[in-house]
């Protein structure tokens, strides 16, 4: 067998290079094309032989056809060893060993992490991984002094003996930092990691002062936990003991980020270590924390929340200048804060005009079990590089206590090797690091921040540590994990280990670590701030002034009409398309109709009413951000906010957004077709709205029931954020709702759920039924000095319903009507003859009007409740008083009796009824499903409920 054949035998025999590591081979080939002398001789021989040409110099290398070689790589992988050997002949020992060293390098770069020294408890023996043993590639002890070409590494030598190479690889990839990055497609990023890690062999070289500072962070982290443990016995705090290196990581992250130009850091984390971050990273006064433990803190919120869910903000000094820190409020749904933080970061970026995330950095802190187990993690990661949700990369830190909540066996806590494996879906690199090596943790943090600032991508620091106490301080974890907690009981603590190390190095005197402990304890006893320096008087010019929106009482009043001249000007701007854009024929018709609506020639439909609201807002300086699945076109093709050129030749060209062109100095209009996610996208938009009160932030569900997938965001943030945390938020939800015979999953947006959550004037729940109503409603949301979440049950069939259109006059005067009174002039004129008032909300109104006309029931008035919460008592009571002879009040709804608004409006209706009046219900019977799935059954039910609204009261009757 020839020497050339031996190269092919070695490569073909090893699936490691010809399987998932094909990109590595391609990387070597790219270097070969640029300069054949830049790759080892064995690789040069390999590529020359594969191309069937003699060795060439650099000038000719670029002339080698590229794709045939790549195709040959794939074909060789399919063929396997037998065919390769048959094709290329006999073995050569020298060539085989050269290739073997390259395979060994690739193996350590790929899976060296699996031999890394990561567990502070040292519970598991090193697993047998043959690919990390030189013998796997036919190399023996006799080869240890053989010198090989290592120019494709960054160890600082062109050649190294096998012994030197092996030591360098193990120091770099199998020490207390285990790196995963070889799955990254981008070769520049991979080479970046190779250079950064291999050039220093994954070992820091810190000054004595730096080491002392790291010890101080460990001392502060441990000191606070022990202080609280002895002073507030039995109170839950979710201790960080066992993971103290996390505080060193956070401190380093802030300083490094500030030095690299970051001016704002938005942090999201669950409760493990949260109190420690508040005091030892963000500079919260210890006395203020102690007051919360002692229940003497001011209680000025209707509900409030526990101390380990509280947010905080501060400004700290860094080498690059002041950095604003913001810790997001977070409920017990551990990872749900992730998209909220990302949205908050994006709002801050947009406010600064920071397109790349140079100045704003999101940081997410995770627990190992939650990171691996909760789906919102994946959904949030999927947003990372999309245009509408890009935040310039997130630094993720995992406090990996190896036990999660109560489970320590990975077979039960996840289905992946590492808890971080989910991030491989976006090719984010991971640095696993032993929490007992705080210097390695700090180094990993430095590299992570530098990578993020260089490539604007997510990066993960997985701090492998332990949890000294239970999930909370009242647990006894040894009940279920006796082996682990025997190890933990014997562990002296990270601070002690590192303090002893610095004493041994001569960095500190023998009593140095203990003196540091005493000094920190004195600060706590005196209630002094432990972080220096915190900037108490600094205020950024980009800070948002929420003062105009705080402490405001509810009001329905707002001047939302616009002058006729402005209406016509805006209408012309949003219906005019540049000559170089050719809209679809259907869109041309929509634009022509809208132009006619703008001139007052025909009534305004829903899409035009919505567009004019947006146009008038951005022209007045209020931004509009609309996102969700299919938002640009609109699920029911009513919006057409984005005009697509039908003659475009490239997918990323040829679109025009009229609402971005309504005025010379307008506010931004942003419309985003989101990824197929509800939970993460809604969380993102809530976070955005929480940091921009001057932008109308809207999330639109494709169908209203899709909000089911985002219920945690609705429950924990939208409905309760203000009463728990005092967080004012004006997010708007568009939830298409209406019984159109489309089955259980496409009928109901679950009005009853929002009504159940409504209290303390925490939100607005509305169901508008005309184009002018949506126009005035959206303008009201921004023009009032009031920010409350707005839940809009938008229609489907009404989008094109002739009777749901509005005349131009309703836009240039008037405002949003919380109650729409009877519209039949004859009935209003002869109110004394009305015997029944039907009260309803939504689409069913039009069915009722049609039925009344069929029956000639002129003694029945129909009143629409457009705002279900806060219930408009004053206006509604005035409507009922119009009909003093009405004996029956009927609530009619499309939804089943146990769903929809019925159980939540009945007491409000009853409160405003006149003496002697009776209240009854007309609608579907109670049902476990939101709607039936059979079209004929839907029609029968719809017919029956409308008929019942005019018939004799049956079943439940409430008398005033």
UniProtKB/TrEMBL annotation:
<keyword id="KW-0560">Oxidoreductase</keyword>
<dbReference type="GO" id="GO:0006099">
    <property type="term" value="P:tricarboxylic acid cycle"/>
</dbReference>
<dbReference type="GO" id="GO:0005829">
    <property type="term" value="C:cytosol"/>
</dbReference>
<dbReference type="Pfam" id="PF00676">
    <property type="entry name" value="E1_dh"/>
</dbReference>
<dbReference type="InterPro" id="IPR029061">
    <property type="entry name" value="THDP-binding"/>
</dbReference>
<feature type="domain" description="Transketolase-like pyrimidine-binding">
    <location>
        <begin position="604"/>
        <end position="801"/>
    </location>
</feature>
<dbReference type="InterPro" id="IPR001017">
    <property type="entry name" value="DH_E1"/>
</dbReference>
<keyword id="KW-0786">Thiamine pyrophosphate</keyword>
<dbReference type="InterPro" id="IPR042179">
    <property type="entry name" value="KGD_C_sf"/>
</dbReference>
<dbReference type="Pfam" id="PF02779">
    <property type="entry name" value="Transket_pyr"/>
</dbReference>
<protein>
    <recommendedName>
        <fullName>2-oxoglutarate dehydrogenase E1 component</fullName>
        <ecNumber>1.2.4.2</ecNumber>
    </recommendedName>
</protein>
<comment type="subunit">
    <text>Homodimer. Part of the 2-oxoglutarate dehydrogenase (OGDH) complex composed of E1 (2-oxoglutarate dehydrogenase), E2 (dihydrolipoamide succinyltransferase) and E3 (dihydrolipoamide dehydrogenase); the complex contains multiple copies of the three enzymatic components (E1, E2 and E3).</text>
</comment>
<dbReference type="GO" id="GO:0045252">
    <property type="term" value="C:oxoglutarate dehydrogenase complex"/>
</dbReference>
<dbReference type="Pfam" id="PF16870">
    <property type="entry name" value="OxoGdeHyase_C"/>
</dbReference>
<dbReference type="InterPro" id="IPR011603">
    <property type="entry name" value="2oxoglutarate_DH_E1"/>
</dbReference>
<comment type="function">
    <text>E1 component of the 2-oxoglutarate dehydrogenase (OGDH) complex which catalyzes the decarboxylation of 2-oxoglutarate, the first step in the conversion of 2-oxoglutarate to succinyl-CoA and CO(2).</text>
</comment>
<dbReference type="GO" id="GO:0004591">
    <property type="term" value="F:oxoglutarate dehydrogenase (succinyl-transferring) activity"/>
</dbReference>
<dbReference type="InterPro" id="IPR032106">
    <property type="entry name" value="2-oxogl_dehyd_N"/>
</dbReference>
<comment type="similarity">
    <text>Belongs to the alpha-ketoglutarate dehydrogenase family.</text>
</comment>
<dbReference type="GO" id="GO:0030976">
    <property type="term" value="F:thiamine pyrophosphate binding"/>
</dbReference>
<keyword id="KW-0324">Glycolysis</keyword>
<dbReference type="InterPro" id="IPR005475">
    <property type="entry name" value="Transketolase-like_Pyr-bd"/>
</dbReference>
<dbReference type="InterPro" id="IPR031717">
    <property type="entry name" value="ODO-1/KGD_C"/>
</dbReference>
<dbReference type="GO" id="GO:0006096">
    <property type="term" value="P:glycolytic process"/>
</dbReference>
<dbReference type="Pfam" id="PF16078">
    <property type="entry name" value="2-oxogl_dehyd_N"/>
</dbReference>
